[in-house]
Every structure is written in structure tokens, then in C-alpha cells.
Amino acid sequence: MKILILNGPNLNLLGVREKSVYGTESFESYFEELKKSFPALELEYFQSNTEGALIDKLHEVGFSYKGIVFNGGGYTHTSVALADAIKAIETPVIEVHISNIYARDAFRQKSVFAAYCKGSITGFGLESYRLALHYFERMKPKQIGFSSQKP
Length: 151
Prior knowledge:
By secondary structure, the chain is an alpha/beta fold. The protein contains six helices and five strands, in the order βααβαβαββαα. It has a five-stranded parallel sheet with strand order 2-1-3-4-5, sandwiched between helices. Keywords: Amino-acid biosynthesis, Aromatic amino acid biosynthesis, Lyase.
């Protein structure tokens, strides 16, 4: 089962930026742990600081992969274009955040993606990704599909 982990802007700096918020481990190191922990899942990782590249990746895999775990970083709160891309694809997306976005600045407490995602996981550090992967691992393919606002 192919699952994409998609990270947005500034997440390439995990392990070196704002360690009190984001921790000390790089995502690349954590991704290796995830691959070992989920041998039944075919995990792919993509990160970009560019909105268009994230949209292109969603379009590329959004009709063939079984799931997407997406941390949109700052775009979560502002990008209607990324929200539209999530809405347009068939692959279910789980929104994740390392920090608890609801305990941060007021402008960070709104997600423009949430209405088009299967669910959201926020505030569990890097483990937010693991929790999303557990969902995809445990669900049978017919149960993964989106049943809310997607066409």
C-alpha cells in the first residue's frame, strides 16, 4: 500500500529550527524509523518549500496512492490552492502537525485544509505522523475512502 508523507515549508529544518517546538530530530532520520516500523506500507517522502511543487505532488499521487499524510506547515492557514488540490484528488489525506496549532498564535488555529481531509492529528510531535500511518495500516482499503465533502 503506497502512502506519501508530504511536508511543506520550513519542515526541511526539523532538528535545527525552534527545537523547543519541533524537537531535535531531522525528518529524514525519523522517516527511516517509520519505514522500519511500517514494513507493510510502501512509504514515500517529499518535502518542498514551494506551494506549486506541493500541489503538483498531490496531483501526481492523488489518484493512485492509498493515502497521504500531509503537514502543510504555514500553508495550512493560508493556501486555498492547496485546499483545492486536496479537495480535487481521490486519495484520502490526513493532516498532521507537530505542534498543537490550537495552542499557538490565533492565525495558526485555523486550517483551510481540514474540511477536505479524512482527519487531523496535531500536537504529538513527530509521533503525529506515526498515528496517521497507524490509521492507514489498520484500515482495509474499502474503509480508507473519504466519505465527507469530497466529490
